[in-house]
Amino acid sequence: MLEINQLIMEDNKIEKHQQPAESYIKEIKRKTRSRFLAEEKVRIVMMGIRGEGKVSEICHQFGIVESLYYKWSKDFMEAGKRRLAGDLMREANTTEVKQLRQHLDEYKHMVGEQAHEIRMLKKSLNGNI
C-alpha cells in the first residue's frame, strides 16, 4: 500500500512539472512562429504550382505544414478568380471621379458653344446668299 501511495505522489509531481513545461514550450512556439509576407506566400505557392519540388519538400524547406500550404494555395486561387471576375478593372477613387466629371462638364460646355456658333454661321450664310 505504501508503494502505491508513493507512485501516486511521484505521478502527481511529474504532472505538476509537465504543466509548466508544456506551457513553456507552447509559449516558445508562439513567439518563434514564422510570419510570411504576402510575396513570400505567393512565391512558395508558385513553387508548388510550377512543380519545382514535391509539396512536402517545399513545406519542409520553409518550415510550414502542408495544410498551411494548401490553405495559401486555395486563397491564392480564389483571389485570382475574384480579380478576373472583375474584368481587371481598377477602382477609381473619389478625387479621380470628381476631376473626370469636371472635365466632362467643361467639354460639354465647349461642344454647346461650338454648336451654337455653327447654327449662327449657317443662319448668316443663308441670309446673305
From TrEMBL:
Signal peptide stretch: none
Record GO terms (molecular function): sequence-specific DNA binding; transposase activity
One GO BP: DNA transposition
SUPFAM superfamilies (alphabetical): TrpR-like
UniProt xrefs under InterPro entries: Transposase_8 (IPR002514), Transposase_8_domain (IPR052546), Trp_repressor/repl_initiator (IPR010921), WH-like_DNA-bd_sf (IPR036388)
Protein name: Transposase
UniProt source species: marine sediment metagenome
Lineage, top ranks: unclassified sequences, metagenomes, ecological metagenomes
